[in-house]
Amino acid sequence: xxxxxxxxxxxxxxxxxxxxxxxxxxxxxxxxxxxxxxxxxxxxxxxxxxxxxxxxxxxxxxxxxxxxxxxxxxxxxxxxxxxxxxxxxxxxxxxxxxxxxxxxxxxxxxxxxxxxxxxxxxxxxxxxxxxxxxxxxxxxxxxxxxxxxxxxxxxxxxxxxxxxxxxxxxxxxxxxxxxxxxxxxxxxxxxxxxxxxxxxxxxxxxxxxxxxxxxxxxxxxxxxxxxxxxxxxxxxxxxxxxxxxxxxxxxxxxxxxxxxxxxxxxxxxxxxxxxxxxxxxxxxxxxxxxxxxxxxxxxxxxxxxxxxxxxxxxxxxxxxxxxxxxxxxxxxxxxxxxxxxxxxxxxxxxxxxxxxxxxxxxxx
Amino acid sequence: xxxxxxxxxxxxxxxxxxxxxxxxxxxxxxxxxxxxxxxxxxxxxxxxxxxxxxxxxxxxxxxxxxxxxxxxxxxxxxxxxxxxxxxxxxxxxxxxxxxxxxxxxxxxxxxxxxxxxxxxxxxxxxxxxxxxxxxxxxxxxxxxxxxxxxxxxxxxxxxxxxxxxxxxxxxxxxxxxxxxxxxxxxxxxxxxxxxxxxxxxxxxxxxxxxxxxxxxxxxxxxxxxxxxxxxxxxxxxxxxxxxxxxxxxxxxxxxxxxxxxxxxxxxxxxxxxxxxxxxxxxxxxxxxxxxxxxxxxxxxxxxxxxxxxxxxxxxxxxxxxxxxxxxxxxxxxxxxxxxxxxxxxxxxxxxxxxxxxxxxxxxxxxxxxxxxxxxxxxxxxxxxxxxxxxxxxxxxxxxxxxxxxxxxxxxxxxxxxxxxxxxxxxxxxxxxxxxxxxxxxxxxxxxxxxxxxxxxxxxxxxxxxxxxxxxxxxxxxxxxxxxxxxxxxxxxxxxxxxxxxxxxxxx
Amino acid sequence: xxxxxxxxxxxxxxxxxxxxxxxxxxxxxxxxxxxxxxxxxxxxxxxxxxxxxxxxxxxxxxxxxxxxxxxxxxxxxxxxxxxxxxxxxxxxxxxxxxxxxxxxxxxxxxxxxxxxxxxxxxxxxxxxxxxxxxxxxxxxxxxxxxxxxxxxxxxxxxxxxxxxxxxxxxxxxxxxxxxxxxxxxxxxxxxxxxxxxxxxxxxxxxxxxxxxxxxxxxxxxxxxxxxxxxxxxxxxxxxxxxxxxxxxxxxxxxxxxxxxxxxxxxxxxxxxxxxxxxxxxxxxxxxxxxxxxxxxxxxxxxxxxxxxxxxxxxxx
Lengths: 364, 507, 316
Hints:
heterotrimer; A: 16 helices; B: alpha/beta; Rossmann fold; 3 domains; six-stranded mixed beta sheet; 17 helices; 32% helix
């Protein structure tokens, strides 16, 4: 069994190994890993290490873009993490993000309301749409014992096409996007934009901070969270203890979906100001899996994991500009998931080294 | 020097944190039945896993027929003529008997010659009088038959040295007698048998010699004809043991729970309980005797609410509870010590205190509305581990997975007794525990009874049923076939009822 | 009649990759390893086949697609070994490992498209597989029209693989041991058969078949490889495996069913009542049908008992 204190170590090892492997891939294909890392650092700190002491060394725009990119990823991390705590694997965050986006867009376009109602309503509807999209597979699992993994994957594709259909059907849409959302429904902030060199940073970070606290509070402090954790570790024992396992599974997936739905709101109400027809998945949900695993499903860990992945995703523009295929960021994300999944293996290696050290000590 | 067919010399096997075998020696003669005796956790199974090639020992040597061997895998064990009948059957439920037997040593080339296989199995079955049908699926045959399939697997591989790991746990007394007959046949043919067990009576009845292990250490080897049960028990436990449970006669009161014509289905949707009736009184321990798989599990789960009742009724203090949820039944006074504590009773990755409140976390003062009260939870945890002497490395903060089986069980008992129940359902509460812990469990059950609670004790160990119960009900194929008092019956009579050959009901 | 025969033919063409990949999944799951990475393995196979084809078709002519899918299969096999190593030797959660490999496949293949072709897709090839009228058979009335005209030979390859798989699982020593590994691994080990080897073999075969299928898919349904080339067919194959109850003939039936649901979008334009329904609904249809199918079959699901469970020899 994995010890808690070693999770941070294992996560750091996983990140390190992923960077090493990705560097090898880049070297093989004639790309300089150095520019990759410089792009990443520049994105996450705003500092261009190639221009130390020169003009353009620091650019707050990168910082703002990086933070706004991390927001939806932290939220999908919370989504996947929440389900994990109940022993469920929410591969469906991807689809829940899409449904959340669509919900927010619909509210933004169809209603005319003062901002103090319009914006909260749009965010709420996004969470609700995500929750519904999460609740369906949760309910199927609870009621029919269907494994959530295959169903959520299918729901992702359904969401992709259904979402596009709704976006196109909204009044005024063309084949690519909707009309602009009402300004009263947006998270945009002139102040934050000016502060960060005209980046797309928006008020959504407040939603993210609240979500992090809510996550921690539900899981750790409430009887409901206790029940979810019990179900996650051992369904049979939870049932024995009198916990209604089926309903907890459905609720857990719904709440997980709500977090992902909020991520959708970040995208349409914050990053953009219109709804988009998308050709394929944008990987927010899959990044969420990596973030949750990396962060050990705690609010704290997910926050930092989300920042890293936000950085990776946000640095893609800089990478493309310096001739690095932006897919390297996807490769790194996937490798991190893979290496975190190997934690048992990494642990075994540690144990083996410990045992060797011990037997050496004994023989002396 | 005497020639042994198997000699394990000075075997040491370590696992992270424990030494399972420390310098253990075992010498097996050709044609003998050799018992390997020890408590749960004494290292018997580990030693045999070493002989069978599952584990490699850190130190020590193994000789087979005088030659030093290195048994790296079960394959090599089989080549040396060593076969093992596992305690937990290694059978594939939806495969046929033949498929199970030939797996890994299939006749024919790339294509399996099923005709030949079937013929061989039939012949072997006939030769040893096992009466196994080669084409049945495992899931359709009885546990006793399944054991014979395990024995056939070993014979099919022409084993000369046969290891039987706790083979009698699942059998009726009559089936045990038959098994002893089969073992004696083997010995008469020149095969050698190692019998792993903690049951003294069987050793006296069947074995020639016995080797005793205690806490991973070799204690000694004695001739069975020169020893007694008491002596063996002392060797096994390391002190004088009194197997009689210390208790005053029961003072049963009125019926607290009555079960009427209960029908319940098992996992496979087949009827497991077929019109079961029983009644349970205040201040008595009712023992349910029977061979595993006759509906005990379903009975217990129907009472506790884990399994749906198809027909019939369970009445607690005059009111039906079959439509109550699990939590409602807990509140109404049904406590439960499950058979599989790690799967059912404990969230192994939770802390000890979190496990202690598993059934009560929603009650004041452990929580207020939706909010957990950590302070109160810890307080309750501390109280229970003090009261019930639960020992662990970090007190209530210990992750339960890191606790010993005995202390896990104490924590469960503590939690359940603290519910102050009307009915305590205890299903195989002493399974997998050492003698000290078993005594503790029995003492607590008797205490509960003396406080006027009712105890429903399910056990496959007839000795436990006989010594702990105040009254015994025998379960066979989903019905109660006997209602007797322990002082007025014998193991033989119970055995007949357990196999459906006899029915007795108290007037 | 014309419409019906082209619907049938096209269904079978779209069913081909689903059937082959699902057969791959069958080997893996029967050995006890859940392989959710099928989608990613198909991506790798498709990428390799679609990269090989445009670069070599001038030189190799008609043989190109066959060599291409063979290379796709090999690449898929190699790629699947990562899953085998991570989930068998390192005891990782099989679903998480599979998810990572699905993502990695897209990342790697598009990354190398950028390196090789300077775009997020491969160069287009002039032709992949060619539809053929099978000699003799296509002359049979009705049956010839339905099953042997304007068909790719790869469909018959899929049929052959179904037959071979059914035979291997039922009749051979390997099949018995493979199935046993997925049901009760410790029983298999106790009889001296290495569960590890069986599982490695099962996963490897799944990788070879999924890689092959990815190659076939891109060379029969597209003109180049893109990130969207496989668009969930690997997952649909997984559903076909469940729908087909982990049985080769069942997989064939389920594969044809899902193939049919895939082509709905294409034909809906020609059928007046359906033409008004937006295309997105038909695109979503196979996935919705999959969910419904899983729900219908949930009560009777009969998967290998030990599939997906960690099996740790030392914890016996």
